Structures are given as structure tokens and as C-alpha cells.
């Protein structure tokens, strides 16, 4: 048993480092054993065998796999992920350009998810078996049932039919002549530049993809919140509060909600991997041009350096999300600070 | 006298656990609807060549005079860009989806179950190794990994299946591990060990029966996930090769003709929704039947 909260966080960090190492080895080996020679692919079919073997030596493809891996990771830690065959630029530069768009989309989706799912979960638990409970169940069911691409396309169809000028692709109106700013987050950059028109346009563009991305999570989180609320409602200390005559409103919002937000947060962390996966689909449907679109292209074109980087960054997204979840939970629940790191 | 005996028999029957479960299941509208949906989908898929109006449209048939026809009595779901009947193709597409479910779950559920059982019972290094591996696998975005694996090899359905299977066992292992770990410390397991039962007997005859409800609910819900996952892969262009019909790629094909020929997207999409809805309702019904939490 570890009593020290910092030690617990450290253990957790250690696990994450281990996860990244295993993930990187897996994808690295996978990317190197595939049929096809990266040097040949980089030079094209017209290159002579001498040119290819020269490039192989230059790229270090002659060295044993472990040596290649170590040198790759050494360079990766210094921010060098190699060149992308597709864009002919360093992969890091491509990532710097595309990751913020995805971060913006995913953050917006997570905010929508919690803003809808937590209140819905609380209400469905409180008004158990009344109409609102059935609505909540229906939303959860649709959320886990509908393919995200179908939901995204349906949103586009509805927008095109009933809201004629609502933008259904891209991140902003290019007619506004806004080129972006320091953070890469369109909403933040436009405010920093004091361009309210750009901000509104960006917000409009963000709405549909963010809703589409949040749908699957809304269903699950509503469900988890509901069952956590119902379970905690039966706990002794809550019954004690009730018998002391504490109003139901206070019980729900001051005591139950806090206790019941741990389960949905944990699930959110675990489900983050599939959220990133869904971003690939949503970005494609809405031509979002983020990291996921970049990744999809890289995979389709067998751009090995980019594919490796995309998988690593996806893993990193997952890990960062779970770290944030861990910190949030230890703030919400003091008991967690004393428990052994899970 | 005979009447009393009959009444007693009836009471006995009412109290048996199996009967109670069946009672709960059959009185649950969602469970019954889910069962009917899944059954109808399976039957349609099995009998596809005989029940579809135009089974020949599954191949590379071209009939330009009938292209982009809206749904009507003859073509229930309309026709696609080369005039093929979407309804027939969608029913055949169901076969691919269900095949994917059988392939993925048929391999990953047994693997995940055995690893979970062993990790929960053995403890020590075995436990740490398996849970560690599970945690690492869970950190990988499944879709990204499936895309990467299937494309680095060859973007075929077979490779997509392998890729999904490689990741899927972890969820089962994790779940079964939790059950197995809590059961392993029960007294009767200790008793069985003292009585001389070997580890295989304890794992499969003592612990496994406790996991059956969890496994069946999880597997049913997973069937829906696998279908969604497979449809998403083929929507992104990593599915079976055309002209073989596949629900995900049919939606992707139809997307080029939005919003005018909406049925080319929404009809195959509705078929996916129908099957996943069925498996979800069935899974929820099973969960209620086993009286599980959450």
C-alpha cells in the first residue's frame, strides 16, 4: 500500500511510459516488417538499384532492427520523427499543423458530452421510470447503436435541407481571410486577433462535427451516470442525510453528484481511445483537416514515418486524457489519494 | 390430492432459477424485440440468395437505365449509381457483417476468457504480466491500430478481421479478470483445492461458470460493436473488394451523391442500425435476465 499521493501518481506515470514503449515497439516492428521497401517507395520506380541502396544506408535501413528502433526513439525524443513521404516535410511540422484542429474538435466533443450526459444521467436516475428516464434510455441506445459516420452524414443532410447556409465542411469560412494564429485552435486564435466574425464562423463550423463526435459518448456516460447515481443513493451516508431531513436537491447536487461523477470520468478515460478512432471518421466526413485526416491519408499512402507518428500521438492522446482523469478523480475523491495506484 | 400435487409441481417450477430467468426475459419487450431482430437478420443473411428480389445485383452488374432510382415497390431501397438493387445488396452485405462477428468474437472471446481466468486465479507474475499486457493493448486506439495493421499488410477484410481480433480480446480479459479475481478468494475454491482439484478443474469447472452471465452479455453487446467497427472500416475504404456488397462501403459509395440520392446512404445505414439495435436490445435483455448491475 502506498500512502503517498505523489508516489501513486509516479507509479501511474511509469505505467504510461511503459505503455508508450510497448506501443512504439509494436508499431515500429510492424512498420518495418511490411512488404515493400521504404527507400524504394521514397524514390519511386525509376530509381536505379544503386540509388536505392544508397538511400537505404542513409536511412539506416541496413542496421539491425533494435539499433534502428533505438536511434528512431532517440531522435523522436528530440522532436525528430523523420520525413513524411507524402508531404515531403518533417512529420513533426505536419503534426504541429494538424494536431490543434483535432484537439479543438475533441475538446468541444468532450464538453458537449458532459454537458448533456451528466444532467441527463442525473435526471433519469431521479425520475426513474418516468418519461424522462425513457428519453434518456433512448438517447443512450441511439448513441451506442448508430454508426458515427451515419450520424455525421445525417446531420449534414439535415443541415443542408433545413438550414441552407449552415456550413457542413471545413473549419471556417475561407472568404474571411483568416490564416490562423499562435495556438492553432481556431476559436482561441480568432478571439486573440479580435475577430468576432471569424470566431462565430469557426463556432458554426465546429458545431456539427463536435456533436457527431460526442454522440457515442453521450449514450455511455448517461448510462453510467444513471447507474452510479442509483447505486450511491442507497449508500448509508446518503440515507443518513435523508433521514436528517436534508432536502433532496441538496443531497443530489452536493453529495451524490460528486460521488457519482467518478465512474463516468473513469469510463471517459478508457473510452478515449475509441473517441480518437471516431475522430478519424468524423474528420473525414466533415473534411476537418486535422491530425486524424492526416493519419488516414498517411495510412492509405503507406507513409511509414507518418503512420508511426500517428499511432504514437494517438497513444499519447489517450495517456494525457487518462492522466487528466486521474488528477480530476483524486481532486473529487480524497479516498483515491490514499489508495494504491490502480 | 392430485390437484394439490399439481399445484406444488407448478410452484416448484416457478421457483427454479432457469424458469425465473426465462420469465424475466420473455416479459421484457426490449429483449423480445432484440431477439426477433437478431433472428430475422441471421435468417435473412443465411437465405439471402433465395429471398432477395435481385440476387444477381451482388456482382458487377451494370444497368444504367435503372440508376439512382428512388425507393418504390420494385426497389424497396432504390438503386445505386450503376442501377443495382440496394435492398438485395444490403441483405448480402449483412452476411459480411455477421461473418465478421463470428470470426472476431469466435477467436477473441475464448482467448480473452482464458487469459482473464488465469490472471485472476494465478496471481503473482502471471497476473501482472497479463494485466499489464491488457492495459497496454487498451491504450491503443482500436480503429487506428486496425487501419494501420490492415493497410500495412493488405487492406482486405481478412486482415481487418485479424486486426480487430488482435485488440478485441483485451476487453474480455479485463472483464473476466475482475470476476475471476473476486471468485478466486471464495471459500469453496479453497475447499476444492484442499480436496485435491487441479488448476484446470478449478479454472473451468469452478470459476468459469460464474463468468457465463458476464461473458454472454458482453459478447452480445460486442457483436453490435464489431458490426459497427467493421462498417466503419469499410466506410473508410478498408473493407471487402468491390463488387462484393458491404454495408459500410455502400454508405461510402452513396455519400458521393448526397443529398439528392439520400436513399443510397440512409438505406444501407438503416440496415446497420437495425442489426446493431437488435444486438444491443438483446444484450440489455440478457443483462436484466441475469439481474446484473449497470
Describe the protein.
The complex is a heterodimer of chains A (342) and B (294). By secondary structure, chain A is mostly helical. Chain A contains 15 helices and no strands. Chain A folds into 2 domains: 5-78, no CATH class; 95-335, MetI-like (MetI-like fold, Orthogonal Bundle). Chain A has helices at 5-33, 38-43, 49-59, 65-77, 91-126, 131-145, 148-162, 186-192, 196-233, 236-243, 248-260, 262-285, 291-300, 304-332, 334-338. In chain A, helix 7 (148-162) crosses helix 12, helix 8 crosses helix 9 (196-233) and helix 13 (291-300) runs antiparallel to helix 14. The radius of gyration of chain A is 24 Å and the shape is globular. The termini of chain A are close together. Chain B is mostly helical. Chain B is built from 12 helices and no strands. Chain B has helices at residues 2-15, 17-26, 29-46, 48-51, 86-122, 124-138, 142-153, 157-184, 187-194, 199-235, 247-255, 263-289. Chains A and B meet through helix 1, helix 6, helix 7, helix 9 and helix 12 of A and helix 6, helix 7, helix 10, helix 11 and helix 12 of B.
Q: With helices defined by DSSP (H or I, 4 residues minimum), what is the helix count of chain B? A: 12
Q: Supply the CATH superfamily name of the largest domain in chain A.
A: MetI-like
CATH class division of the largest domain in chain A? Mainly Alpha
Helix content of chain A: over 70%
Give a quick summary of the entry.
Chain A: This is ABC transporter permease subunit. Chain A: Keywords: Cell membrane, Membrane, Transmembrane, Transmembrane helix, Transport. The complex is a heterodimer of chains A (342) and B (294). Chain A is mostly helical and 342 residues long.
Sequence-ordered SSE layout with sheet pairings:
The complex is a heterodimer of chains A (342) and B (294).
Chain A: H1 5-33, H2 38-43, H3 49-59, H4 65-77, H5 91-126, H6 131-145, H7 148-162, H8 186-192, H9 196-233, H10 236-243, H11 248-260, H12 262-285, H13 291-300, H14 304-332, H15 334-338
Chain B: H1 2-15, H2 17-26, H3 29-46, H4 48-51, H5 86-122, H6 124-138, H7 142-153, H8 157-184, H9 187-194, H10 199-235, H11 247-255, H12 263-289
Helix pairs in contact in B: 2-12, 3-5, 3-12, 5-6, 5-8, 5-10, 5-12, 6-8, 7-8, 8-10, 10-11, 10-12, 11-12
Amino acid at each position: 500500500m502506498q500512502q503517498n499521493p505523489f508516489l501513486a501518481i509516479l507509479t501511474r506515470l511509469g505505467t504510461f511510459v511503459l505503455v508508450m514503449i510497448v506501443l512504439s515497439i509494436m508499431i515500429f516492428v510492424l512498420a518495418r516488417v511490411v512488404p515493400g521497401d521504404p527507400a524504394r517507395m521514397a524514390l519511386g520506380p525509376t530509381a536505379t538499384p544503386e540509388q536505392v541502396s544508397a538511400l537505404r544506408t542513409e536511412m539506416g535501413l541496413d542496421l539491425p532492427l533494435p539499433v534502428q528502433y533505438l536511434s528512431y526513439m532517440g531522435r523522436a525524443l528530440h522532436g525528430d520523427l523523420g520525413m513524411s513521404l507524402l508531404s515531403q516535410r518533417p512529420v513533426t511540422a505536419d503534426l504541429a499543423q494538424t494536431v490543434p484542429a483535432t484537439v479543438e474538435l475533441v475538446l468541444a466533443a468532450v464538453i458537449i458530452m458532459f454537458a448533456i450526459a451528466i444532467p441527463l444521467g442525473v435526471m433519469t436516475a431521479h425520475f426513474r421510470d418516468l418519461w424522462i428516464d425513457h428519453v434518456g434510455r433512448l438517447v443512450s441506445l441511439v448513441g451506442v447503436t448508430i454508426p458515427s459516420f451515419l450520424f455525421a452524414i445525417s446531420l449534414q443532410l439535415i443541415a443542408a435541407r433545413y438550414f441552407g447556409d449552415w456550413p457542413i465542411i471545413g473549419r471556417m469560412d475561407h472568404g474571411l481571410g483568416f490564416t490562423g494564429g499562435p495556438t492553432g485552435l481556431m476559436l482561441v486564435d480568432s478571439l486573440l486577433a479580435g475577430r468576432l466574425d471569424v470566431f462565430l464562423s469557426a463556432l458554426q463550423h465546429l458545431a456539427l462535427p463536435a456533436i457527431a463526435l460526442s454522440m457515442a459518448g453521450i449514450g455511455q456516460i448517461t448510462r453510467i451516470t444513471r447507474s452510479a447515481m442509483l447505486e450511491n443513493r442507497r449508500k448509508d451516508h446518503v440515507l443518513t442525510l435523508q433521514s436528517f431531513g436534508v432536502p433532496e436537491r441538496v443531497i443530489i447536487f452536493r453529495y451524490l453528484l460528486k460521488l457519482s461523477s467518478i465512474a463516468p470520468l473513469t469510463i471517459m478515460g478508457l473510452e478515449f481511445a475509441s473517441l480518437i478512432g471516431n475522430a478519424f471518421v468524423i474528420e473525414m466526413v466533415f473534411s476537418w483537416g486535422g491530425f486524424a485526416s492526416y493519419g488516414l491519408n498517411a495510412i492509405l499512402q503507406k507513409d511509414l514515418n507518418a503512420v508511426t507518428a500517428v499511432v504514437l500521438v494517438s497513444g499519447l492522446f489517450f495517456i494525457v486524457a487518462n492522466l487528466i482523469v486521474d488528477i480530476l478523480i483524486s481532486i473529487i475523491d480524497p479516498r483515491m489519494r490514499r489508495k494504491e495506484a490502480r | 390430492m392430485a390437484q394439490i400435487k399439481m399445484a406444488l409441481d407448478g410452484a416448484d417450477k416457478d421457483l427454479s432459477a432457469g424458469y425465473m430467468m426465462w420469465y424475466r426475459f420473455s416479459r421484457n419487450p426490449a429483449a423480445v424485440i432484440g431477439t426477433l431482430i437478431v433472428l430475422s437478420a441471421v435468417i435473412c443473411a443465411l437465405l439471402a440468395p433465395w429471398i432477395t428480389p435481385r440476387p444477381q445485383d451482388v456482382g458487377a452488374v451494370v444497368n444504367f437505365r435503372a440508376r439512382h432510382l428512388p425507393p418504390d415497390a420494385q426497389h424497396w431501397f432504390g438503386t445505386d449509381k450503376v442501377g443495382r438493387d440496394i435492398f438485395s445488396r444490403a441483405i448480402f452485405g449483412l452476411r459480411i457483417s455477421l461473418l465478421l462477428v463470428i470470426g472476431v468474437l469466435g477467436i477473441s472471446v475464448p482467448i480473452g476468457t482464458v487469459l482473464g481466468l488465469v490472471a485472476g486465479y494465478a496471481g503473482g507474475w502471471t497476473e501482472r504480466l497479463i494485466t499489464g499486457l491488457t492495459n497496454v493493448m487498451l491504450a491503443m486506439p482500436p480503429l487506428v491500430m486496425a487501419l494501420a495493421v490492415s493497410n500495412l499488410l493488405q487492406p482486405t477484410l481478412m486482415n481487418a478481421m485479424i486486426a480487430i481480433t488482435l485488440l478485441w480480446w483485451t476487453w474480455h480479459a479485463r472483464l473476466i479478470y475482475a470476476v475471476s479475481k473476486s471468485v478466486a478468494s471464495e471459500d469453496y475454491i479453497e475447499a476444492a483445492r484442499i480436496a485435491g482439484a487441479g488448476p484446470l478443474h478449478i479454472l473451468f469447472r469452478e470459476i468459469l461458470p460464474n463468468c457465463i452471465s458476464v461473458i454472454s452479455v458482453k459478447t452480445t453487446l460486442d457483436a453490435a460493436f464489431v458490426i459497427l467497427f467493421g462498417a466503419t472500416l469499410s466506410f473508410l475504404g478498408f473493407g471487402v473488394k468491390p463488387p462484393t456488397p458491404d454495408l459500410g462501403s455502400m454508405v461510402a459509395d452513396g455519400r458521393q451523391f448526397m443529398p439528392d440520392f439520400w436513399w443510397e446512404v440512409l438505406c444501407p445505414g438503416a440496415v446497420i442500425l437495425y442489426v446493431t439495435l437488435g444486438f444491443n436490445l438483446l444484450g440489455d435483455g440478457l443483462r436484466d435476465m441475469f439481474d446484473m448491475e449497470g
